[in-house]
Design goal:
GO terms for molecular function: isomerase activity; oxidoreductase activity. The protein is α+β, with helices and mostly antiparallel strands. It is built from nine helices and seven strands; from the N terminus they run ββαββαβααααααββα. α3 packs across α7.
Length: about 250
Amino acid sequence: MSKNKNPLTKGSGLSTNVILTAIVAVVAVAVIGGVLWFNRDGGSAPEEPAGPPVAAELLRKPDSNLLVESPESKVTVVEFLDYQCPACWGYYTNMTKQVEADYEGKINFVVRNFPLDMHPLARPAAQAAEAAALQGKFKEMYHAIYDNYEAWGSTPDGQVSSDVAKAKGLFEQYAQQAGLDLEKFRADVNSPQVNAKIDADSADGKQAGVEGTPTIFINGRQFKPGDDVQSWEQLNQAFRSKLDAELAK
């Protein structure tokens, strides 16, 4: 995990829009005594973006992975993420994981890959998730990767890890724990099919205006809370309020 406390600076790969004008954190879960460090950029209060929403056909493809699926729902959330991005892990730990549970059967929540070059283990993690998806175990691998982020994604002193061998070994352990066929998993991890899927996700993200991670769309519009959002609790509330408003339409 990077010690950079200002990921909105040049070269971070995380733009003001991408960080939702609000929070990028080097996160430790509160239940284990961690501390949230917030970096935010001033901006206006949340408002409906101008212009048409991004086309649904661009944001969600037939082979896209879902955390939550409700075919009859009129609400679709799409997150472009980088598995080694500390902010993405913070979103997962403090928001996405509980949203997944609370909105089961109510919304569609799509996960798409957007690995950044600045994170050397982002692509191997995406490959592991996609290889698991080929065996119907995407959610299991997604959760294992994020629940064990500190084991593979960061060094003991809080830097972004570049230990590919260690990460891949751990991903194989998670695959085994999820009941995957390990031989097939190993064959699929770096297969043309898996790499093409990751590349297609990234290309679609760029076309949709994604510049960094996490970037979240709700019914085709990028979720951007205002500058009054200063905590994970407030971010969670803003996100759920938007979901509930869309569900009520």
